[in-house]
Amino acid sequence: MNTATDNNATRTDSLHIVCPHCDAVNRVPATRLGQDPTCGKCQRDLFTGKPVDLSSARFLKQIERSELPVLVDFWAPWCGPCLSMAPFYEQAAQRLEPDFRVVKVNTEEAQDLAARYAIRSIPTLALFKGGREVARQPGAMDANSIVAWAQQNNRR
Question: Which residues form the Thioredoxin domain (predicted)?
Fold first, then answer.
């Protein structure tokens, strides 16, 4: 977060938040994150309480332009552990937003991302901050474990 000073008057910290619907970049005061902010372009909610399914094209914008940490579930539709973890990941999304952007990447559809990030097993959780991967955890987890892992690794 950046604190700017303008003529000795302190402005509220604000963050760039990428819309999960239209990918527009919104500037949202940090104090308003928990007040159901909407996108200035499409007028839809910036936080839905559900993981956002991302294609390769949308993924890079979310991790590079959002000032929130981005939690990613790399998964595949044929993967049993991925499917069993899916409801827990949704529960974790409800608890982690608006402090995190929670997304899913189908490695079958986004094979370029799976290769780029060397995803060797699924499900794999990865945490991105400032466009860079800062933590990774392979294997299925329950909601409490996902939330704890994300919060712990966000402090680094």
Answer: 22-155
Reply yes or no on whether 39 is catalytic.
Answer: no
- Active-site annotation holds for 82: yes
Q: Which two tokens stand for residue 56?
A: 């390769």
3-state helix, strand, coil in the chain (%, to 5): 30, 30, 40
The residue with tokens 């529960």 is 91
Could you give all domains of the chain from N- to C-terminal order, each with its CATH number?
Answer: 48-154 (3.40.30.10)
One-letter amino acid of 100: F
Residue 18 identity (one-letter amino acid): V
Number of residues that make up the chain: 156
What is the Cα–Cα distance from 11 to 144, expressed in whole angstroms? 36
Residues 75-94: tens digit of each pLDDT: 999 999 999 999 999 999 99
- What pTM, to 2 d.p., does this model score? 0.90
- CA distance linking residue 153 with residue 36, whole number of Å: 25
Rounded to whole angstroms, the Cα distance separating 38 from 27 reads 11
